[in-house]
Design a protein that fits this description.
Elements lengths: L1 H18 L3 E7 L2 E5 L2 E4 L5 E2 L4 E4 L4 E5 L4 E5 L4 E7 L9 E16 L8 E7 L2 E5 L3 E6 L3 E8 L2 E5 L5 E4 L4 E6 L8 E2 L2 H8 L11 E3 L4 E8 L2 H13 L5 E5 L3 E9 L2 H15 L5 E4 L3
Parallel strand pairs: 9-10
Antiparallel strand pairs: 1-4, 1-6, 1-18, 2-3, 2-5, 5-8, 6-7, 7-9, 8-9, 9-12, 10-11, 11-14, 12-13, 13-16, 14-15, 16-17, 19-21, 19-22, 20-21
GO molecular function: peptidoglycan binding
Keywords: Signal
Protein name: FecR family protein
């Protein structure tokens, strides 16, 4: 009897765990920051996100987010992205729901093949344009001239703030543009080459260019110093610049300052060279995380 109850309790707990999962950061081309409760800190792979968080990306940066129901969001450089509402449902027994706000920059929302049948109720606001997503692949961008949404797969409805008409995009490469201080344009078709060669690369991760990932196995050492104050100085400099530095004590009463979870040896080497040029870090030593 007790064994049966134990197995039943374990099964219920496992079921609940399967239904609840956080939205996490899968990969980052730094620099990028997480703003939470008015505090800014570098964005790192594995970070768990919540409603109210704002993500900021720097020059040449990229961010990949993994959602609980199997979709992914990619952000381009110099973007500002706010999570207004978010739950942890996996879309099986109850819908995953979110309200996301792209205040600036390029983004892409993609539903993977295995996740297409799951339930989702996602509204993405691209500055002045809101797109209702139930399972699709879209690319969008907000800049100084316009807000733009392009359908790559699926079906979405879009509506611009202050305009009564709702527009339906139901064919691949349909796109909608809302110019600044002008009426919205009619839904039109964009050339596939423009999407693949010009738009999509703006949100793709940059392998070999300092990419850090949740499964990254490489470490970059940027300083080894003899006192804690100097270590904290490098730590603060890296953190404020959007790099999630770590300090670790080593033998001889010394400290090493570095970055971890780099996706490949090449990513670590490129980042080390960049930090020496941009921040004047004294070292660029690449090691496996296990060392």
């Amino acid at each position: 009897m007790h064994a049966a109850l134990f197995r039943l309790s374990a099964a219920i707990l496992l079921s609940l765990a399967a239904q609840a999962a956080p939205t996490t950061v899968g990969a980052v081309n730094m620099p990028a920051w997480l703003e939470r409760a008015g505090q800014m800190r570098p964005l790192a792979p594995g970070a768990v996100l919540q409603a109210g968080d704002v993500l900021h990306t720097g020059r040449a940066a990229r961010v990949l987010l993994n959602l609980p129901e199997g979709s992914q969001i990619k952000l381009g450089e110099e973007a500002v992205f706010r999570i207004d509402q978010l739950n942890v449902a996996d879309g099986r027994s109850s819908p995953f729901s979110a309200a996301l706000n792209v205040l600036k920059g390029a983004f892409r929302f993609t539903t993977g093949l295995l996740a297409k049948g799951r339930q989702r109720e996602v509204d993405v606001r691209i500055a002045t344009v809101t797109a209702g997503i139930r399972g699709t692949d879209i690319w969008g961008k907000s800049d100084a001239e316009k807000d733009l949404v392009c359908l790559l797969e699926g079906r979405i409805s879009v509506q611009r703030e202050g305009e009564a008409e709702q527009h339906v995009l139901d064919q691949p490469l349909d796109f909608f543009v809302a110019p600044r201080d002008k009426p919205s344009l009619a839904v039109a078709k964009v050339a596939a080459d423009k999407v693949s060669q010009e738009w999509a690369p703006q949100t793709e991760l940059l392998n070999g260019q300092g990419l850090a990932s949740s499964g990254g196995k490489w470490r970059l050492l940027v300083a080894i110093v003899a006192n804690q104050d100097e270590a904290l100085g490098w730590y603060d400099k890296l953190q404020s610049a959007g790099y999630p530095a770590r300090i670790r004590p080593i033998s001889g009463n010394r400290y090493r300052v570095g970055l971890e979870q780099l996706h490949s040896e090449g990513d670590a080497k490129q980042l080390g060279e960049r930090l020496q040029q941009e921040l004047g870090t004294p070292l660029s030593t690449v090691l496996p995380m296990a060392s």
